[in-house]
Amino acid sequence: MRKPPGYWQNWDNALKELKPICEELGRFPSQTELNKKGYKTLARAISKNFGGTEKVAKKCGYDTYDQSIGRKMLGYWTFEQTVKEYLFYIEFNELTFYPTKNELIHNGKHDMYGSIQKHGGYQKFKDVLKETYNFVLDEHPPREIKWNFEKAKDELFKVYQKVGYIPTSGELDKMGLQSLRGAIDQRGGVKPFASALGLQTKAETLGIKGSGYWKNIENVKKELVPVIKQLGHFPSYTELKMLQRIDILGSFKYYKGIENTAILLGHTYEPKTQMRTLDGHFVRSTYEVILDNFFFINDISHETEGLINKEGNNRFMYDFRVKDLNNNFVHFEIWGYRKGSNQSEIESQYNAKRKIKEEVYKKNNLTLVSLEEYLFNKDFDQIYDYLVEVCIKHNIKTTGFNYDGNYLELLVYNIYSIQDLYEDLKPYIKENNGYMPTANFLRNKKREDLVERLLRFGGFVVFREKFKLKETPRTNKWSSDDFFLKELLPLCEKLERLPTSTELLELNRGDLLGAIYRRGGFQKVSDELGILTKTAYNKKKQ
User: Fold this and answer.
1) At what angle do helices 149-163 and 190-197 cross, to 10 degrees?
2) CA–CA dist 127, 133 (Å, integer)
3) CB atoms within 10 A of CB 289
4) pTM
């Protein structure tokens, strides 16, 4: 319907038309979206009468589309801002040379490079950096130096940190490190390098045993008994490597692998299990067990796997979170691959996600402690000392660290298998008439912990199929007005208005949010029930 003359010059009219659109999208609409919805005159009025999209969006209390996806606004790329972003990129990536055009574009910096070109080109930009900011880098990446003893020794130590022992020449070849193997062979073989590093060769690590020693299962049992007794469970591959028991690991090949060896010795080996730490937390890896137990035995209160930031699109989970002595949060991440490594597609994908996650921490001004995987391949006293240093450095705890020298205490955990989870779920399956309980069912029973464990074991569908449970029958209860009002009105009474989509999601009420959308959206529900939306409520309160 055509609006009367002067209609779009009145701000109240524009706000009235914009409210339901903003509430539906959860942000301010773009010009394209307004045009597609038939609001071309409103789109023109925003630009002509009210100062433009960014100004109107801010006045309405919403992010624009560009802001919601992290895109820079018009006028952002001034020369000074370009310099600031460029220097941040250099520092973040620890570069000692100027990145090329292709490198910038490959890493998603099209807008930055475009701004550099706009301000006179890359060479002029570098000249200004030198003249104005006295900032100079190498024009090209440093060339790789030829092999010498020190370089070969350093590279061999990196391999040791990764695999936990000094590998043989044949193993270096299998790892694709033929050039390193050649450099070592030309200088007397592995042994002089191992001596220079103060480490044992693989043969020395394995120990000298009599011929056929490991082919006798009783000898394997004799070696494993003290380890199992102290750990409280059959050790994993990672644990044996960390305990420097490569010799035991090597024996498993005679008994068709680690799992079959465990069975022959009267134990079970379940690699895909959750681990219950000393304080009852459930974690996924041995490395997380060590860190969790370190916090526990040192009386450092800690949380596991919560949202880094509840706002925004990137809803990443932290590994651990503690508070320092000033009551500020410090986050810990245990990374599975070395930063910047791209030797495989998996590593490349992992590090791309890691980079985004680190940027989330930086954007939200949060303190992050990064623990690399190779840290946990060191001796236990080195791991412990490093964690103590981290706590002191970040003012988490400065004195009174409790440790009696029993390194294995850091590894003690109880295996929590999928069968244990099934036993915990049995009462709720029975209460749900034999059907697999839903996430909402368990949450209503205050068992969010069971929901999290189900997700860690692959999700509800995987669990349901493994134990041959039937899916809870779906009902159309939300089509009932009585049921809808029963669920909605208590929230409205508490808030004195309709809840927003964000508030419903934070309350885990996606079911109620979906019902509102199926009934025409927030504005329609507001009109039908006579209950104000948040925007209308705030305006009325002013």
Assistant:
1) 80
2) 10
3) 21
4) 0.41
Question: Hey, is 5 helix, strand or coil?
Answer: coil
- Rounded Cα distance between 380 and 407, Å, is 6
Give the Cα separation of 344 and 453 in Å (integer).
Answer: 30
DSSP string, 126-175: HHHHHHHH----BSSPPPPPPP-HHHHHHHHHHHHHHHSSB--HHHHHHT
Tokens at residue 290, please? 């060590």
- Measured in residues, the chain has a length of 542
Question: What is the SS3 string spanning 248-279?
Answer: HHHHHHHHCCHHHHHHHCCCCCCCCCEEECCC
Torsions phi, psi of 326, nearest 5?
Answer: -100, 10
Query: Of the candidates 138, 125, 43, 33, which has an alpha carbon nearest to the alpha carbon of residue 77?
Result: 125
- How many CB atoms neighbour CB 413 within 10 A? 25
CA distances for 144 relative to 94, 96, 97, 124, 151, angstroms = 17, 14, 14, 29, 10
Report which secondary-structure segment, H or E, holds 331.
strand 329-335
* Cβ–Cβ under 8 Å, residues 28 and 62: yes
What secondary structure does DSSP assign to 39-71, as a single string? -HHHHHHHHHHSS-HHHHHHHHT---HHHHTTP
d(CA 241, CA 25): 52
Concatenating the DSSP letter of every residue in 382-427 gives HHHHHHHHHHHHTTS--S-----S-GGGGG--EEE-HHHHHHHHHH
Yes or no: say if 23 and 535 are a contact pair by the CB < 8 Å rule. Answer: yes
* Angle formed by the axes of helices 122-133 and 110-118, nearest 10°: 80
Tell me the residue type at 175.
Answer: M
φ/ψ of residue 470, rounded to 5: -85, 145
Tens of pLDDT, residue by residue, the chain (542 residues): 567 777 878 888 888 888 888 888 888 888 888 878 878 888 788 877 787 777 887 888 887 776 666 555 566 778 888 788 787 777 777 777 788 877 777 777 777 788 888 878 888 888 877 777 667 777 766 655 567 788 888 888 888 887 777 777 778 877 778 778 887 787 777 777 777 777 766 666 655 565 678 889 998 898 888 888 777 778 877 677 767 677 888 888 888 888 888 889 888 776 656 677 888 887 878 888 889 989 998 899 999 878 887 666 666 888 899 999 999 999 999 988 777 666 667 777 878 888 888 998 998 899 999 998 888 777 777 888 899 999 999 999 998 887 665 556 666 666 666 777 888 899 999 998 899 998 888 888 888 778 877 776 667 877 888 888 888 876 667 778 888 888 899 889 888 899 987 788 778 787 787 788 778 888 988 888 889 998 888 888 77
- Do residues 194 and 201 lie in contact, with contact meaning Cβ atoms separated by under 8 Å? yes
Strand 302-304 relative to strand 320-323, pairing: antiparallel
Question: Taking the CA atoms of the chain, what radius of gyration do you get in angstroms?
Answer: 30
Cα 48 off chain centre by:
44
User: Three-state DSSP class for 4?
Assistant: coil
